[in-house]
C-alpha cells in the first residue's frame, strides 16, 4: 500500500521540483526545490538546505553559514561553473513583479483610506 501510494505521488513530486516557491520571507530571490538533475551537478561542499533563485541573473544561490556571517553564494558545479536556469528566472521575475504590484496596490489603498 505504501509503495503504491509513493509510486502514484512520485510524478507529482518530480514535476514541482524546479519551480520557485512564491513566498516573501524578506530574503533575496525566491526559494526553490532542487531537482535530482541539479543535485548531480552541484559541488558536494555546498549546502542544499536553503537554495534560492534570483530573478536578476536566473542563477541558483545557496545559504552559506561561515564563521563570521551567513550569506547567499552562487551555487556552482564541481567544475566551478554557476548553475542557472532561464525558465526559473522568468518565473522568479514574474513573481517579483506581482509582489511589487501587490505592495503598490496595498500602499495606494492605504493612502486612499487615510485621506478620507
Task: Describe this protein's structure.
With about 120 residues, this protein is α+β, with helices and mostly antiparallel strands. Helices cover about 40% and strands about 15% of the residues. The chain has helices spanning about 1-15, 35-40, 85-115; strands at about 30, 50-55, 60-65, 70-75. A four-stranded antiparallel sheet has the order 1-2-3-4. Strand 3 (about 60-65) and strand 4 form a beta hairpin. The chain starts with a helix and ends with a helix.
Describe the SSE topology.
Blueprint: H1 2-15, E1 30-31, H2 36-41, E2 51-53, E3 60-65, E4 70-74, H3 86-114
Defining traits:
single chain, about 120 residues, alpha+beta, four-stranded antiparallel β-sheet, 4 strands, about 40% helix, elongated, disordered N terminus
Note the gap between the termini.
62 Å
**Which spans of ≥5 residues are poorly predicted at pLDDT below 50?**
2-24
Number of helices: 3
> Which radius of gyration do the C-alpha atoms yield?
18 Å
Number of strands: 4
Strand content: 5-15%
Order of helices and strands, N to C?
HEHEEEH
Q: Which structural class do the helices and strands define?
A: alpha+beta
Helix content: 40-55%
Strand line-up of the largest beta sheet:
1-2-3-4
Largest sheet: 4 strands, antiparallel
Q: What best-fitting shape do the alpha-carbon axes yield?
A: elongated
Please state the average pLDDT score.
76
Amino acid at each position: 500500500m505504501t509503495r503504491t501510494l509513493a509510486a502514484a505521488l512520485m510524478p507529482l513530486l518530480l514535476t514541482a521540483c524546479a519551480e520557485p516557491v512564491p513566498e516573501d520571507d524578506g530574503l533575496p530571490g525566491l526559494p526553490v526545490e532542487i531537482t535530482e538533475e541539479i543535485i548531480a551537478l552541484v559541488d558536494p561542499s555546498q549546502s542544499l538546505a536553503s537554495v534560492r533563485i534570483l530573478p536578476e541573473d536566473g542563477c541558483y544561490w545557496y545559504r552559506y553559514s561561515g564563521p563570521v556571517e551567513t550569506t547567499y553564494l552562487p551555487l556552482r558545479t564541481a567544475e566551478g561553473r554557476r548553475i542557472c536556469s532561464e525558465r526559473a528566472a522568468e518565473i522568479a521575475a514574474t513573481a517579483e513583479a506581482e509582489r511589487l504590484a501587490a505592495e503598490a496596490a496595498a500602499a495606494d489603498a492605504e493612502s486612499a483610506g487615510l485621506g478620507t
